[in-house]
Amino acid sequence: MEHHHLYDGGENDYMQQEDDWDRDLLLDPAWEKQQRKTFTAWCNSHLRKAGTQIENIEEDFRDGLKLMLLLEVISGERLAKPERGKMRVHKISNVNKALNFIASKGVKLVSIGAEEIVDGNAKMTLGMIWTIILRFAIQDISVEETSAKEGLLLWCQRKTAPYKNVNIQNFHISWKDGLGFCALIHRHRPELIDYGKLRKDDPMTNLNTAFDVAEKYLDIPKMLDAEDIVGTARPDEKAIMTYVSSFYHAFSGAQKAETAANRICKVLAVNQENEQLMEDYERLASDLLEWIRRTIPWLENRVPESTMHAMQQKLEDFRGYRRQHKPPKVQEKCQLEINFNTLQTKLRLSNRPAFMPSEGRMVSDISNAWGALEGAEKGYEEWLLNEIRRLERLDHLAEKFRQKAAIHEAWTEGKEGMLTKKDYEVASLSDIKALLKKHEAFESDLAAHQDRVEQIAAIAQELNELEYYDSPSVNARCQKICDQWDSLGAMTQKRSEALQKTEKLLETIDQLYLEFAKRAAPFNNWMEGAMEDLQDTFIVHTIEEIQGLSTAHEQFKATLPEADKERQAILGIHNEIAKIVQTYHVNMAGTNPYTTINPQEINAKWDKVRQLVPQRDQALIEEHARQQNNERLRRQFASQANIIGPWIQTKMEEIGRISIEMHGTLEDQLTHLRQYEKSIVNYKPKIDQLEGDHQQIQEALIFDNKHTNYTMEHIRVGWEQLLTTIARTINEIENQILTRDAKGISQEQLSEFRASFNHFDRVSTAHSNTLHSAQSKQHDVCACSRTRTSWDHSGTLGAEEFKACLISLGFDIANDAQKRTGMMDGEDFHTCLISMGYNMGEAEFARIMSIVDPNRLGVVTFQAFIDFMSRETADTDTADQVMASFKVLAGDKNYILAEELRRELPPDQAEYCIARMAPYTGPDAVPGALDYMSFSTALYGESDL
Amino acid sequence: GSRTMSTYTVELLGPAPWGFRLQGGKDFNMPLAISRLTDIGKAAKAGVGVGDLVLSIDRVNTEEMNHLEAQNKIKACTGNLHLTLQSVSLYY
C-alpha cells in the first residue's frame, strides 16, 4: 500500500497546517460540514468547465475519474489516461494517478492513501481536496515573499486597509461580520455594493450580500453558508481560505496590475535603497576622508610643544584619539567596506551596473587614506614620548642651567665694583702688596670659576642643540654671563696691571724716599755738623790749632759748592717723587717713612750754614789773636813749673830713702826728717807764684801746655803729697818709737822685721812690676786725658794710685827705683813667717791672713806686718788683762754691777761699759749683774762662746 | 795660688756653750770669723772650721755688726743657734 502524506515534513508551513488540520478534525465536526460544503462548491466551480458536477464529495471522487478531471482543469495539464474499468483495482489506480500528479507538483501527501479515497473516507477525501486547493489555488499567492497563507492574509489586509471597520487578522473570526467580504468586493468593484449602507452588527445581511453579489457578478459560487459562519464561534479556517482565494483569483486582472506595481515598487525600492546606500557610502566616505584629512596633519604635526605640560596634554589628546575618537572611525571604515560590498552585491543581483564612487572616494582611496592615517599615527606616540623625554631632559638641563647661572651670578655680584675700585690710588706700598696678594687670591678664584662658566655655556649649547623652547632667554643669560666673564677677566687683567703699576710706582717712590733719606740724612748730618762746627767755640789751645781750624774752615768753604750740588741732587729726588705723584696720581698721603727730614728743613739749614760761614771767619780771626796771648802765658807757667816739679820729686826721693834705709836710730831719723820738713815749708812762696800764673792761664781758659809736663794740679798734689809724706814719715818714726817702747820690741827686732819685710818686698819684683805696669798704664790715660774738672771730681786718689800717677809723670820715687811696693803677697808672707821661725798649719796661716789682710787683697802692708809681728811677739792676752782689771773692780765677782762701774770709772767710760755689757747669766748672777768677761774679749774682737 | 770658698749652715743645739771663739767685727775692720774651737764642742762636732767666716747669726746678716753686737746676738740665743758660715782655705 502506498501512503501519501498531506505535507512534506521539510516545509514548515505544511507541517504546521497538518497539525492544525488534525486538531481541527478532532475538535470540531462542525468544520467538516463547512469544509464539505465549501470544497464541493470549489470543485464544482472548476468541474463545471468540463461540463460535469459532483453531488457528494466523498462518493463522487471514489472511482478517481472526476478527481483526475478536476486536476486536469485546474492545472491545465493532461493526466495519464484513466482506467475505464469499474473494478476496485481500477478505481485505486486512477486515484493513485491523481495522487501521483499532486506529488509531482512538489507536494508530499502524507497519510493519504488511494484506498481510503476509494473507500469513501470523508476525512481523507477532504484532506486531499484541501491539499489540492492549497497547491493550486493558494500557493501562488505570495505578496512580498511571504508564505501562501500569509500572502493571502496580507493581500486581504492590504485590500481592506482603507475600510476602517474591517480588521483582518486571520481566516476565521475576522470574517464573521461579513464586512471583510463586502470590503473586498467593494474595493475591486465598488459599483456592486453600497458599502456605506453596511453595518457591522448585521453579519447575516453582510454575508449574504457578499455571497450573492459574488455568485451573481463575479462568477464565484456560494461556498459558504451565512448561518454556519454566524452560528459557529470560530468558522473553519480552510473553508474561509478557500472562499477568499476564489475572490483573489476573481480579481486576478486587477491583481496583475498590482503585481506590476508591486514589482516596480520593488525595483524602485531596490534602486532607492541602492541610491541610499551609495549616498550613505559617499557621505560616510566623505566624512571619513574628511576626518582622515583633518586628522593626518594633526598626527603629522611634529612641532614640539615648548612645555612639558603642553606636551603631556598632547599625549593626553593622542590617548583620547586612540581610545575615543579613532575606534568609531575604525567601525565606520569597516561599515563602509561592508556597505560597499553589500551594495555591489545587491547591484549585481539586481542586474544593476557596479557602483562607481565619485572621484577620490573609492574604496582604494579610503584604504590609501586610512593607510596614510595609520602611517602618520605610527611613530606619533613614539615621537610624543621621545619629545616628553626630551622636554624632561630639557627641563632638567634648563633647571641645571638656571641653578648654575644663579650661583655664578651671585658670585659675580659685586665683583665688577670690586675690580673697578680705585683703592690702589690711595694705598700705601704695604697696602698695595696686600691688595696684590688679595688680587692674586681673586685670580685663583676667578680661574676656578672658568670651569663653571664653561659648564654653563655647555649646558646652554646643549639646550640649543636640543631646541629648548626658551633658548633665546637661556642664550641671552648665557651671553650675559659670558660677556660679564670676559669683562671680569679684562677688569682683572686691568686691575692686576694697575696694581702692579702702582706697586712699581710706589716702589719707585719708596726707592726715591730711601735714596732721599740716605742722602738727606748724611747731608743733614753734615749740615748740622757744619753748623755745629761753624758755631763751635774753638776749644783750641794753640796757634797751630787755630791755624789748623782756619785751614779746615777754608777747606770747608771749598766743599760748599759740592755740598750745594748734593743739596740740589737731594731736592731733585724730592722733586722726582712729586713729579711721579702728580703724573700718575698715586697716593702721597704718607710721608717719607725713612726720614723726618724735608726739603724745607734742608734749605733752612743750608741758609743757616751759609749765614754762619762769615761769622766763623770773624771768630777765627779773633781766636787767632787770643791764642797768641795764651802762648805767652803758657811759656811763663812752664818755665816755673819745670823748676818746681823736679824739686818736689827730688825731695820725695830723699824722704823715701830715709824711711827705707833706716840709718841710725829712730831718733836720728826723726831729726833728719824734721830738717827736711822745714826746707820744704820754706819753698811755699814759689808754689804761690806758680798759682798766680796758673790763675791767669785758667782765666784765659787754657787747658794744656806743651811746654811742660807739669800741670798745676800735679804740682799741687805733688806739693801736698810731699807735705803729707814728710809728715807721715815723721809720724811713722814716732809710732815706731811708741810701738818699740809700748810692746817692748827692741830696736833690733824692729830692724829685723823691717829687713825681712824689705827682703820679700825686694824679692817680689816680678809681681810689683806687673802691678806697677798695670797701674801705670791706667794712669797714663788718666793724666793725659783728664781735664782739671775731672781731677776735682775724682779728688781723693789712693796713695798707691797717686804713686803710680807720679811715676808716670816722671817722679822717680825711691822705693819704686828699688822695685819696692811696700807690700808682700800672701805667698811671700807665708814664706817670710816660716823664715822667721813660725811653723804653722794651713788653717793657722788662713787665720793669720784674715787678720793681716782683712780686705783679702792678697797682699800684706808693712804696717799690718808690724802690727801682726808685734802682737805675736808681745804680751798678747790683753783681753785677760782687761778681764783681770774688771775682776778687781768687781771685788773678785764673776760679774760687775752698774754702780760699781760708775763708782770706779769716769762717767763717760762707765756709761760706755753699762750700755754695752750684756746681762750676766751665770749661776751666781744677781739682778743687774753685767757680763764684764765677754765685754772684755769683745774689746779685742774676740769672744769665747 | 787659688782660693775656694763654700757657704754652709749649721744648727747648734742649745743652750750655750757653743764651743767656739768668735773674732772680728766691723769695729775691728775684720770679718767675723771662728778663731778657735773647743775640742768635742758643739761647733766642732757640727763640722765648723777654724778661720771660717760668720755670715749670719740666727739668719741676721753680720755685715754691719760690730763685735759686741755679734756676741750679744749669740748670747741672747736661748734655743738652737743657727749660723751661716763660709769656709776659707788657701791653696798655693
How would you characterize this protein structure?
- The complex is a heterodimer of chains A (945) and B (92).
- Chain A has 945 residues and is an all-alpha fold.
- Helix content of chain A is 73%, strand content 2%.
- In chain A, the strands form two sheets. A two-stranded antiparallel ribbon of chain A has the order 1-2. In chain A, strands 3-4 form a two-stranded antiparallel ribbon.
- In chain A, α21 (599-661) packs parallel to α24 and α26 crosses α28.
- Chain A is rod-shaped, with a radius of gyration of 90 Å.
- The relative contact order of chain A is 0.03.
- With 92 residues, chain B is mainly beta.
- Chain B is built from two helices and six strands; from the N terminus they run βββαββαβ.
- Chain B has helices at 42-45, 67-75, and strands at residues 2-12, 20-25, 30-37, 53-57, 60-61, 81-91.
- In chain B, the strands form two sheets. A four-stranded antiparallel β-sheet of chain B has the order 1-6-4-5, with helices on one face. A two-stranded antiparallel ribbon of chain B has the order 2-3.
- In chain B, a hairpin with a 4-residue loop joins β2 and β3 (30-37).
- Chain B is globular.
- The relative contact order of chain B is 0.32.
- The model of chain B has no long low-confidence stretch (mean pLDDT 84).
- Chains A and B meet through α30, α31, α36 and β5 of A and β2, β3, α2 and β6 of B.
- Chain A: This is Actinin, alpha 1.
- Chain A: Belongs to the alpha-actinin family.
- Chain A: It holds the Pfam family CH.
- Chain A: One of its GO terms (molecular function) is actin binding.
- Chain A: Residues 840-875 form the EF-hand domain.
